[in-house]
Amino acid sequence: MLRNYIKIAFRNLWKAKVFSLVNMLGLVVGITACLLILQYVSFELSFDQFQKDADRIYRVTNDRFQQEKLIQHGTITYPTIGKTMANDYQEVEGYTTLVNNGTVKFRRDKSVYQEEQTFFVDDHFLTFFTFPMLAGDPATALKAPNSLVLTEKDAKRIFGAQPKDYARLIGKTLFMDLDTEPFRITGVMKDVPATSHLQFGALISYETMVRTWGPWVKTSWDGSDMWHYLKLKPNADALALESKFPAFSQRYFKGDKVSGSVENFHLQPLLKAHLYSDYEYEIGIVNNGKAVWTMLIIAVFILLIAWINYINLSTARSLERAKEVGVRKVAGATMSQLIGQFLSESILLNLLALVLALGLTVTLEPFLSEQIGKPLSLSLLTGAGYGGRLMAIALGAVFVLGMFLSGFYPAFALSSFRPISVLKGSFKRSASGVWVRKSLVVFQYMASVILIVGTFIVFRQLAYMRSEKLGFNMDQVLVISGPALTRWDSTSIERIASFKNELKQYPAIKAASASINLLGDRLPRTFNVKRVGSNQEKGVTVTRMGVDPDFFDTYQIKLLAGRNFLPTDSDPDGRKVKNILINSSATTLLGFQNAASAVGQKIMFFGREWEVVGVMNDFHQQSLRHQIEPLVFQPFYTNGGFYSVKIATSDLNQTVDLVKQTYSEFFPGNDFTYFFMDDQFNRQYKDDQIFGRITTIFSILAVLIASLGLFGLSSYTISQRAKEIGIRKVLGASIPGLITLLSKDFIKLVLMAILIASPIAWYVMNLWLSDFAYKIDISWWIFALAGILAIGIALFTISFQSIKTALMNPVKSLRSE
């Protein structure tokens, strides 16, 4: 019997080629879109899942308060925290501490190799986390000063090593940056998985930092540059442990007496570090969890829309197949046999669509991966991603269930026809069936309108962030990494000034400056800053930035009062520097009446006085996700910073070559690496831009699939009204009037979908916008535009069938009367 079902199913699918093709197209597009989105979601949700005991690992976070005001919500805290918590609380099984060392240059013979990300880590790190070693002992590799563990990538890049050679690398040495003492390689580890929120290319022993920076990196209660992770014992209650932290703060910090701030500590689960981190000074790779879950909802919507289409398109053929059902029943077919026949058609069509969708998914993966910068693969859904093989089983179960459920209603509806009514020609549509189909179309267009509104708002917010005046001009600014392999000495400031002056001799170069920090970076903070001579009891917190006198001209930042830095404000010996600039927000925070009144005043931090020589206009140092912060500028710059060069782009390649040549003359032995400031700054919006691209692509697909569903319902309804239309034409009805008559019921459904979708879209997008300090207002016209677009698409979808029926010769429809 099964063989017969399949044979008849193929025959019926081939007979109704147009309906089969439209049905197949909707399912293929829907399943493909769903599989692609699920790969992205699976990748994002799988971060740190590979870590052994990941569910017991927590990151220590720290909120700092001054004068009952939150001044820092960060992942960095004091050197002593991890070890002290491990000693004080029996719930803690182990801990590890690390420090971000950023970019370094490894030197081997005469070759230099740049590593973008390195960490100082303690000797617990490799046994605490699951980063497998390929050579060396993880328990001892990072105990001694100047110990270095390389990843496979660097072992191959620097030494040309193959897996069989890794053990031979143990004991070999490299020099790092300007260090004269070699670093001994004590281990080679596997490359860090892409799904680790901690990304690095090499690890350096923490003891190296102790020897270089001093013992405070282990003992300090007020120097805050460390990240701590705790592993709790099995069955330990993290919330109960966290409830003990206020007493911990009181015991060690005594209110604000030790650090100048009231310290509140919290535990963040490792498995939430990637998607649910709103912290400052983030060391890991993070994304927006709201956006990821939104994508999952979109995937569900698209798949539901695709299966709803099948239901509508299948039941649209009910009149065509009514007589077939009547004849089969008269011939002795039972209802279960008829249901089996129609279900087999549904399953066959779904299986064919699934096979085609899998092929299309594999074809489109590289394109989507490039667009969003994520390594997408079907393996993420078959064991390598979130949930492991359970994901594959769950996904298979969903598809099987969806195939049966989407096929069951049409099968039940078609098999329930009464043969006597059908064969006598008195078969009529079911009111309940029409209601179900209309409800499904309302759901489809509701989901589509939500996606359309969401896409509009995402792109308006992105456009707002790109077009909003930031308070500085970063166009055509070439940024060069500083000469880290040139030692800082008494001649360095003069050499940098000469380098800049040489660059300015070229007509294509308009300005040049040096700075320690980059615009867009999270700047360091300074606590307990006070005005000298005021009755200020508590200090305030400001951020700080090291720049040279040309920085503000290069970026066209406006001076409000006083003067800019002079070359004489800087000194190779930082202890002799005494003048500073502040921004307008710092002026307000420090209690000055206006910018002019701040000039000439002195403020205290770092244990000494500084004179304010000028006030700069506020500017958005970070993205518009963040508030403008009080900022202090110091005339500090080092060889490890950056040079910003304002250029004309008429002949970009030639200009870059000139800059490179000049750089090599002044700083021989240093690599020339550069980027453009606007690219660097806009990287802050990368995840938002990816979210915008994905929502746009899949919103279009959702609307396309929903339109197919409306096409199915319009075909079904209009075909049942063919005789009515024939009678109306005979009685003199006009074609425009008939088209309006046939279309208005469907437009009512779309209007209903718009009314339901609008408040849902408003709530969801307000939630998304809450992550931005500066954001657009959600205007009413966005919903109006989305509604007009939805109605326009609906009219276009149903117009073909409406016009065809209205133009049909009434004789054909009335022939059987």
Automatic annotation (TrEMBL):
Keywords: Cell membrane, Membrane, Transmembrane, Transmembrane helix. It is a multi-pass membrane protein. GO terms for cellular component: plasma membrane. PROSITE patterns: PROKAR_LIPOPROTEIN (PS51257). The chain crosses the membrane at residues 21-41, 291-313, 349-369, 390-412, 442-459, 690-713, 749-768, 780-800. Its main location: membrane. Residues 20-243, 447-637 form the MacB-like periplasmic core domain. Pfam families: FtsX, MacB_PCD. It is found in: Cell membrane. One of its GO terms (molecular function) is transmembrane transporter activity. Residues 297-410, 697-809 form the ABC3 transporter permease C-terminal domain. This is Putative ABC transport system permease protein.
